[in-house]
Specification:
single chain; 5-stranded antiparallel beta sheet; Mannose-Binding Protein A, Chain A; Lcl_C
């Protein structure tokens, strides 16, 4: 089954190619190319495609507004509750579709960081992601390589930076200096959101299975860093929820309060928090505030805690 079928006029093919390519690089299975179809099998194949996709994007333009097949495909998608109308030109769609909410992508040039494209991804996710399930008592896998922590209302990237996306978790975990990580990932874009960032030490600590410690710092001469020893269940991060997490240190955005050259990092193998020099390299897991945690997720979490 494909995730997305794109209904469009063949005259808009260059623009639709940009959209299909962007969606495919974001991990979606997209059916859009009708060039191989003949007049004899066109109707049968198109209907079968519509019946076996999760959502249909109709690209409205002057050309598609006059297309019999685009209007027929759109009607079928609307009847099956799987329609996402998109405008590629400043045009009013034909009736009865003019009254529907549309995604405004007029003059879009394929830029995946465009906020309009990011909003389209959020809309697509509503059709393509399975029903949320609770893991480890508090996590929801959003099925787009993001994880929602219902206990903190934070959304995390499922994989470390450097690992490839869309449910594979392969590739090398990359490491960065603290300054490079802060600047590189300031309001970065992923999964339809453009406000990803480095977590604070408190936020990153919330992913561990450790008891919070007020312990005497232990100086490790080799690294000239301060380690806070924690009582933890190892590994300290749930590897079913966050697979292939590196055992190395992870950066946080929290600088050390009286040492400008140091920032807090955390080791997921031991759960230890480390005061580390900012020019050291460390791994990165990004987070964002999840103000839009839906009521269904909240009810799911509330049921799990009694």
């Amino acid at each position: 089954m494909n995730d997305i079928f794109i209904s469009h006029s063949s005259k808009d093919r260059p623009w639709v190619y940009l959209l299909a390519k962007a969606l495919q690089t974001d991990g979606y299975r997209v059916d859009w190319d009708k060039k191989h179809l003949t007049n004899e099998n066109f109707a049968h194949v198109i209907q079968d495609t519509l019946d076996h996709c999760k959502c249909v994007i109709t690209v409205w333009s002057t050309n598609s507004s006059e297309s019999f097949w685009v209007k027929a495909e759109t009607l079928s998608a609307m009847e099956q509750n799987q329609l996402i109308p998109v405008l590629c030109e400043h045009v009013i769609p034909p009736m009865p579709y003019a009254s529907l909410a549309t995604e405004p992508l007029q003059s879009w040039n394929g830029d995946k960081t465009d906020l309009r494209y990011q909003h389209l991804l959020q809309t697509i996710r509503k059709f393509t992601q399975p029903e949320a399930t609770l893991q480890d008592g508090k996590y929801i896998d959003n099925n787009d390589d993001t994880i929602t922590d219902c206990s903190t209302n934070l959304m995390w990237k499922k994989y470390s930076e450097g690992q490839r996306s869309i449910a594979c978790g392969k590739g090398m975990v990359r490491q960065y200096t603290w300054e490079n990580a802060v600047n590189r990932f300031k309001q970065s874009s992923f999964a339809g959101y453009n406000d990803w960032r480095l977590p604070t030490i408190k936020e990153l600590r919330s992913l561990t299975s450790c008891d919070r410690k007020v312990a005497s710092p232990l100086i490790e001469a080799r690294h000239a860093t301060t380690l806070l020893r924690n009582k933890c269940v190892k590994p300290t991060i749930n590897h079913h929820v966050f697979p292939n997490t590196s055992p190395t240190r992870y950066w946080t955005s929290s600088s050390f309060f009286n040492k400008a050259d140091y920032a807090w990092a955390l080791h997921f193998d031991s759960g230890n928090e480390e005061e580390s020099l900012k020019y050291y390299n460390a791994s990165v897991r990004l987070v964002r505030n999840n103000e839009a945690l839906d009521q269904g997720a909240i009810r799911l979490f509330n049921r799990s805690i009694g």
